[in-house]
Amino acid sequence: RLAELTAASTRLDALGERLVRLGQLDPEEFVFNQQPPVGGPERNINENHSDMMDLSGSISRLSEVLHSQYARLDALQLLLLDRNLEYERTPAGWPVSSGWISSRFGERNDPFTGVRAQHDGLDFAGTRGSEVLGVASGVVIWSGLKYGYGKLVEIDHGNGYITRYAHNDELLVKAGDGISAGQKIAKMGATGRPSAPHVHFEVLYQGKAVNPNQFVNNMR
Q: Cα 49 vs. chain centroid, distance in angstroms?
């Protein structure tokens, strides 16, 4: 039984080291191939102690090793879960299932007045009624009409990021809904102030509009 437990401990070491590599974590932070630190004053015992005492000592030492391994694996699991949640909440990919980018972030001539103006998002042109997708998990904080945006969906991702999806023909989610990355949230339309059916997509970080291009180029 002691041999079986020792073999199981070795497999736990191998699993921990593999998880550290797969998670691209600092190997110095999670060291699975070293014995746990021990110490303290000791008292010599009779050299004629029994084999049972030897066995008891071996089991005690193995128990300490297993306890340390489980503690490190629990910490590693929590860290990887947190990282995965953060990854799911960070905008990535296109907000449409099909289409093309018809206007970029930055200064442009306003399509209605011709005057130079700041465009705070990316426009994705496509067919009226085509799918609009959430680019990260989060909670819907707005689903309805908003001046200039038409039928708008706004999603708070809980990490400083908010995404907006404007000019929709139909809204498929309501305020308070939790959504996952890639979920259908609306159907493309031309409500508000558009020249043709498209999705105006914005990314805000800490309340300020940032260039969505860095996020749409990152596919999950």
A: 56
When the pLDDT of each residue in the chain is averaged and rounded to a whole number, the result is: 82
Radius of gyration of the chain (CA): 28
Contact indicator for 66, 9 with CB cutoff of 8 Å = yes
Taking the complete model, does pTM exceed 0.90, yes or no? no
Q: Which residues pair with 188 in a beta bridge?
A: 168
80 has pLDDT over 60: yes
Q: If phi over 0 gives left and psi between -120 and 50 gives alpha, with beta otherwise, what is residue 85?
A: alpha
Cβ–Cβ under 8 Å, residues 175 and 168: no
DSSP designation for 116: E
155 within 8 A of 202, measured Cβ to Cβ: no
Q: What is the DSSP track for 119-172?
A: E-SEEEE--TT-EEE-SS-EEEEEEEEETTTEEEEEEE-SSSEEEEEEEEEEE-
Residue 53: its H or E element: helix 51-89
Instruction: Classify residue 90 by its DSSP letter.
Output: S
Burial of 10 per CB tally in 10 Å (0-12, 13-18, 19+): exposed
Which residues face 117 on adjacent strands? 108
